[in-house]
Amino acid sequence: MRRPGVLITGASGEIGHGLISRLAQDSSTTIVTLDVRGLEAAQGRMVHREIIGSITDTSALERILAEFDIDHVYHLAAYLSTRSEFTPVTAHQVNVEGTMNLLEFAQKQAESHGRPVIFLYPSSIAAYGMPDLETKAKSGRVREDEFNTPTTMYGCNKLYCEQLGRYYARHYKQLSAEPMAGRVDFRAVRFPGLISAVTVPSGGTSDYAPEMIHAAAKGEPYACFVRPDTRIPFMAMPDAIEVLLKLAFAPRTSLTKTAYNVGAFNPSADEVRAVVAKNFPGADISYKVDAKRQGIVDSWPADVNDSAARADWGFAPQYDFDRAFSEYLIPMIRERYAK
Ligand code: AKB
Fold first, then answer.
1. pLDDT(337) > 50
2. Per the CATH hierarchy, to which homologous superfamily does domain 3-191+236-261 belong?
């Protein structure tokens, strides 16, 4: 008998870290992870099976298929935006071919146990491509179907994989005489920049905000790689974890979109600097703009319209800008580095 469980890919990354802790609160959930990097020891103790391997290696997925009856896939593994620009071909292999492997895996799982597999896919604001700063300023909160013209490899990968997920969800459903016999129930969310108090991101372009906070807490100087007036949406990590779970457990009939915007606050880089400087009075934060990375964030919207997520599945972030800093980031980061 195969053991029922949930699969998390990219589990050692920032979202995976929070998701494992949250899912492990329910001891009846069997957590299986797949990542090229090992989990931190504490996270490792929370999961039932940790597989070190790549999503591009279908034999690792075959092994999971043989052993586990997976009903939820949280497919978090990806090369982020800055990193993908340096190695676009590898990024495409991981982000697109890897996702395709996971969709096939989910389809086979659904066929074998006869129930749909819920497939959670974190997409990104990188799926947008604002043509210029004037349009970005004028457009305000962009809707899911606007400006779908990404400028980065990562953004193209995310937008395309949303469509691939939609294809898998529809194609097999149409082929099967028994509509629920085997299908992928694909649900995507376009995350803004995420800020965690317990992990530091790597390879992203929204990383300037978390890097600034963590550097100040460690007493290290930080040169911010974007202009002070740069504005994109952000979200505190606990809200991002709740987003994944809330979307995963929303009734299928209430979902009207393949990919949903979610946002929580959208400070400028200088507003982040100001709150960090207030809380860490010795903080040494300067600006050294990296033209390439600046170009990427300039192509992302200043804010997103997330009214569909609020209406369809009750998205309601708990942390606005002030609360994210005063009740989550500052106290937890202080405690983390004090240790
Ligand atoms: C990145 O910066 O690449 C990610 C994202 C916004 O998707 N954090």
1. yes
2. NAD(P)-binding Rossmann-like Domain (3.40.50.720)
Position with higher pLDDT, 235 vs 171: 235
Question: Cβ distance 19 to 31 under 8 Å?
Answer: no
Cα of 193 to ligand 1 centre, how many Å?
A: 6
**CA 303–ligand 1 middle distance (angstroms):** 14
State which of 15, 85, 124 you would mutate to test the pocket of ligand 1, scoring each by most atoms of that ligand within 8 A of its C-beta. 124
Structurally, what CATH architecture does the domain formed by 195-234+264-302+319-338 represent?
Alpha-Beta Complex (3.90)
Cα separation of 274 and 36, whole Å? Answer: 37
Whose CA is closest to 92, among 55, 129, 62? 55
- The domain limits of the chain are 3-191+236-261, 195-234+264-302+319-338
Matching residue, tokens 């896919």: 121
Q: For residue 37, give the nearest of 12, 59, 9, 55 by alpha carbon.
A: 12
